[in-house]
Structure formats: structure tokens, C-alpha cells
Amino acid sequence: MNGDASWLAWLCLSRASFALIFTAYSAAIPLLTPEWGMSAGQTGLIQSAWHAGYLVSLFTVGFLADRYGAKRVFLVSSIAASVSAMIFALFAGSFLSGALLYGLTGLFSGGSYTPGLTLIAERVAPTKRGRAMGFYLAAASFGYAVALMLTGALTPWIGWRGAFIVNASGPMVGTLLALYALRATPNIIHPAPAGQPAANPLPVVLGNKPAMLATWAYTFHSWEMLGMKAWLPQEKPAASLGAGLTAIAYIGSMAGSVAGGALSDRMGRTWTMLVMSFASIACSLSLGWLVGLPLWLLVVIAAFYSFAAIGDSSVYSTAITELVPPRYIGAAYSVRSALGFGAGAFSPWVFGVVLDVTRAAEASPAWSWGLAWCSIGIGALLGPLAALRLRRMPESAQMAGGKR
After folding, report:
1. What are the percentages of helix, strand and coil residues in the chain, rounded to 5?
2. What does the alpha-carbon distance between residue 172 and residue 175 come to, in Å, rounded to a whole number?
3. pLDDT of residue 15
């Protein structure tokens, strides 16, 4: 294994370990909802609290990475994520404490994401960057799947809190792996381009129309993807077996991340954005109406849904690095995160509210789940339009070696 491949592999293992805490709550929803006396809206709001905290984290670490270097920010935030994850696992015990502590966990978890992407952009050539970022996102999906399987398998033996504690150990392992992976990686602080401000990068980023179109496309993508991640495990509620089978869908996410990144290197960034987003939106608009299907068939459909929904995630991340000067990549990721995860913070809550309203109206399960999933798909429809507009701009030739 050559140096770059080995370096990326260790970094991906670190990312997978950090992701263990990300979906532990989703897997335990069938137990926590009655035990904590929550409505569906409150259940979704705890997941939204995570996304809101994660949003603040991502917005902050992007600017810090530009100012102090991606490596330094990555490692410092990793330590904070380890501590906050274990606090959530040990002390969450109600809707209020769950929302506060899971939100706190999200608040310290962003350092393993966008600074990691910046580190990849600094090391990997543009012709291979989409695939490299695809592997990095696939590592997170692997962590999500492991968390679901661990929670489903361990909960009958040690309870949901014991499963949470096991998953919360992941960020600690991730920190150790990151220290090893980055031991020889320089901490780079890029100079500002001539004539552009280093102290206030926001005007530069907001005035970059191509980068903002990629950001808006990512925003609507995030509405769909984060709502899907929160509620997909509940599409066919079941015991621990259901959580284990649902984890298979996250394996689809792994394949989608790698395939989407590699495809964007070969066919172009916006081409891949359009293909993947249309496929995932079609799944969002139809999945809920299929709630009566056998569990195994729903898992197959969910695996394809996950493949398509995550398939363009790495593409947006890669596009930013090709449309923005290196000094402002962190700031661009901050703006993207504020919009994308801001939308994603509301998505699980809106989904839960739709379920509450339709159930109160005594709608059938197909209508309740169908309309709830449509709230995810309808919100994502503007994403492909932004990608199409970006594709028509001359600056899009900067991406994927001119493949747009």
C-alpha cells in the first residue's frame, strides 16, 4: 500500500470510529420513545438537536481550520468529541436531558468531518479527489451501520444505555487513530490570495456564485439525507432484528459514496449530482407508500435509497475544493454546513410532526408514512435545479479536469 493510500485508510478508520455515536440514538428510538414518554415530534426533535449542535460545530471548525490549520483543529475537536459522547451515553435519561446532551455531542463532533475533507484536499490530486472523499464518507456510513448493529445486538443483553456506552467509545478510538494517521502530516495554513481579505472570508465565499450554487444544491440534498438517516430505521418498526437489517441500508451508503466520488472523477461533478439526486428523490417520494411490504424487500429498497442519497455527498465536498481558493475552503465548508445542516436540523422534526398529525387524523399507516416521506422528497427538489444551473456556468469547467 503506497503512502497516500495508507494515510487515507487510517484517516477513514478514524472517521468510522467517530461515526459510531451518530446513529446510536436512531437505533434505540423504539425503546426510548415509550420509556421517555415522547411523541413522534419529540423523538425527531432529539435527532434535530444533534444536527443543530453539529451545524454549530461545522460552522465554527471551518473558519478555525483556515486560521489555525486543518490538522490542529481536527485533533483538538476529536478530544472534545470523545468526552461529550461519553457524557451523553452515561447521563441521558429523558426527553430534555436527551435533547441537551445529544445536542452537546453534536456540538463537538464536526471536527472529524470538514477538517478531514480539507486534509484530503491538501494531499490528494483533483483527478483522484472525488474517489478519496467518497471513501472518507463511506467510512462514516460504515460507522453508522456498525452502530445500528451494535445497538440492536447489545441492547437485549446490556440495555440501551450499555449499547450507548459501547458506541460512545468509538470517538475515543477515533482520536487515537487520528493521532497515528496524522503523525507526519504538516499543519498547513494557506495564505490569502493577493487583494483578498484573510480576516473576513465570508464576503469572498458568498460572492463566489459557482461555489454558492454547489452549496445550495448541497442544502436541499442535506434536507433529504439527514431526514432519511433519522427515520429510515423506523420505516418498518421491529425489534433488534429490524435495527440490524436496517444497518444493511447503510452499506448501500458506503457503496454510494465510493461510486459517486469515482463517477464524478470520470463523468463530472454536476453530472453525478443530477443522476444521484433524481434517483434519491424518487425513493423519497415513494418509500412511505410501501410500508406494507415485507421487511426484507424494504431493506433492499432502502439500500438503493441510501446508495443514491449519499452518492452525491462527496461530490459537493469535492466541488467546493475546486471552486474556492485554498485559503477559503474551510470558510466555504462553514457556509455550506450552516445552510445544509441547518435545513437538515429541521427535516427530522418536520417528518415527525407529519406523522403525529396524520396519526391523530387516524390515517392508515401507508398514508402516514407516505406523506411523511414526501415531506423529505419535496424539500429536496430544488437541489437538482441548482446543480443544473452550476453546470451551465463557465466556472464549472474548473471541476473534474473540465468534465463539469
Report:
1. 85, 0, 15
2. 5
3. 93
CB atoms within 10 A of CB 194: 5
pLDDT of residue 246: 58
Phi then psi dihedrals of residue 89, to 5 deg:
-60, -35
CB neighbour burial string for 58-78, b if at least 16 within 10 angstroms, e if fewer = bbbbbbbbbbebbbbbbbebb
Cell matching residue 136 = 472518507
pLDDT in tens, 360-383: 777 677 788 888 889 888 888 999
pLDDT score, position 197: 58
Q: How many angstroms separate the CA atoms of 116 and 27, rounded?
A: 26
The low-confidence residues of the chain, meaning pLDDT below 50, are 1, 237-242
At which residue does the C-alpha cell 456506552 appear? Answer: 165
One-letter identity of residue 386: A
DSSP notation for 43-106:
HHHHHHHHHHHHHHHHHHHHHHHHHH-HHHHHHHHHHHHHHHHHHHHHH--SHHHHHHHHHHHH
Q: For residue 233, what are the contacts with CB-CB under 8 A and spacing of at least 6?
A: 23, 26, 27, 29, 148, 242, 243, 246
Sequence-distant (≥ 6) Cβ neighbours of residue 215 within 8 angstroms? 316, 320, 332, 335, 336, 339, 340
Distance from C-alpha of 66 to C-alpha of 284, rounded to nearest angstrom:
36
- Nine cell digits for residue 42: 419529540
Q: Which domains does the chain have, with CATH numbers?
A: 3-185+205-398 (1.20.1250.20)
- Output the pLDDT for position 176: 93
Q: Which DSSP letter does residue 293 get?
A: S
- Strands (DSSP E) found in 329-390: none
pTM surpassing 0.85? no
Confidence (pLDDT) at 239: 40
CA atoms within 13 A on the CB side of 253: 28
What the block records as the C-alpha cell of 160 is: 440501551
The predicted structure's pLDDT at residue 354:
86
Count of residues in the chain: 404
Backbone angles phi, psi at 189, to 5 degrees: -115, 110
Type of residue numbered 139: A
Q: How many whole angstroms separate alpha carbon 194 and alpha carbon 50? A: 39
pLDDT of residue 238: 42
Q: Report the C-alpha gap between 302 and 246 in whole angstroms.
A: 8
Cell 481550520 appears where? 65
